[in-house]
Amino acid sequence: MIQRGETSEGKALLFSMGEQYFALAVEEVDRVLRAVQITTLPDAPPHLLGLMDMGGRQVPIVDLDRRLGLAPRSIGIDDRIILTNRPKQMGFFVDGVHGVCHFEADHFTSAEGLFPQLEHCLTGVGTWQGKTVLIFDCQRLVGDFMDLSMTAPEDNKESVVGASA
Fold it and tell me: Residue 145: which H helix or E strand, with range?
């Protein structure tokens, strides 16, 4: 988890979805892959897009757009899949991965007290090349989301971040 002025060696994976930028601490990321076809599941909860075959092992791919309250989008050949290793291995599609960056203390604001309603998933806010970056704790962001797999769609939690234009 990224904390003020430090991460595992101060590094975070920067990615975008739509016009918004996000980051995860590098220790939460297993790998980044090119978009591949996934297998959809009948009667799956709305946040579960399907499964991806990783050498015979099936990895769930979740709809992070839905979790973040972003507009639904088509998955394109230029998209990427970020595979996480926390709380368990799973993946999600993103528009782009912009590399690994470091948020210096003077370019990072802790979510504690700043966004009390988002402290359950947001670690803080950073700045990268003049852009605002929402920095998430992957386990907190998707952990409870994955636990909703048996919940009826109308019972699912609302998104955690509204889309901005």
Answer: helix 138-146
pTM: 0.76
CB 59 within 8 A of CB 88: no
Domain chopping of the chain, boundaries? 8-150
Q: What angle do CA 51, 53, 58 make, to 5 degrees?
A: 60
Angle at 20 between CA 15 and CA 23, to 5 degrees: 35
Question: Which CATH architecture best describes the domain 8-150?
Answer: Beta Barrel (2.40)
**CA distance linking residue 6 with residue 133, whole number of Å:** 16
Collect all residues with Cβ–Cβ distance below 8 Å to 143 and sequence separation of at least 6: 87
For residues 54 and 36, the answer to whether their CB atoms sit within 8 Å is no
HSE-up of residue 49 (Cα within 13 Å, Cβ side): 21
Alpha carbons 55 and 43: distance in angstroms, whole number: 25
Mean pLDDT over each residue of the chain, to the nearest integer: 77
